[in-house]
Amino acid sequence: xxxxxxxxxxxxxxxxxxxxxxxxxxxxxxxxxxxxxxxxxxxxxxxxxxxxxxxxxxxxxxxxxxxxxxxxxxxxxxxxxxxxxxxxxxxxxxxxxxxxxxxxxxxxxxxxxxxxxxxxxxxxxxxxxxxxxxxxxxxxxxxxxxxxxxxxxxxxxxxxxxxxxxxxxxxxxxxxxxxxxxxxxxxxxxxxxxxxxxxxxxxxxxxxxxxxxxxxxxxxxxxxxxxxxxxxxxxxxxxxxxxxxxxxxxxxxxxxxxxxxxxxxxxxxxxxxxxxxxxxxxxxxxxxxxxxxxxxxxxx
Length: 300
Description:
Helix content: 10-25%
Number of helices: 4
Organism: Galbula dea
Keywords: Membrane, Transmembrane, Transmembrane helix
Oligomer: single chain
Order of helices and strands: HEEEEEEEEEEEEEEEHHH
GO molecular function, one term: integrin binding
Domain Ig-like: 54-136, 141-224
Transmembrane segments: 229-255
């Protein structure tokens, strides 16, 4: 201590008095005490230690911590106090003590279950101090799932969407690898893609990749575009064409067989024609049955 402190201490002692001032941590230190009378003086050095209860401040124990999954679980908090306090931290939700925060080798690896609020308590013989610490755990994307709405089996011409979801902290960003087609529309956050008027170009594998600063993970789903109705239409069209040909043939046969039943014919023009042959056959048939057709001849 400085000379004033030493003089004050010696004066108080010589007078047999005592100081009424409250002791503070600043009083700790080395003092020089000197006793004097007419016969001489004596000097003695004194070391003063001030004990006090613990306290925990922000610099020694930040209120928010960020851990990464897989790293050693360490929650170190520094507290002041004399005697030096013992600090223990426990998660409030389950009151389970963490391993010693300063022993990295014996600390378990961080998992997502470590996230939460912890209470750190500093204790010595003069009291204790509490401080809450919130721990967030970051981790790479996990559990990537894709869902096709309304179904992964899509009818041609209908609409569908593919949604991608993934766990991760920080929140992942999303990227896609999918069949190239002009009728794709991505959501603002890129978590989904919508397809209107599905066609053959939209069938195939849809792959979503979730990424953050700790890693990436992908998931895929197969989309099928059902064109069976088109095959039915094509089949019906082919059947209709065959039917039309058959009807045309039948109609031609009908006209061919009925054209020779009645009408006016030029004998010279009709000679050797199919109509004449038809009439000849029918006349012979009718003649066998006793019927005779008459052909009216006109002068050309």
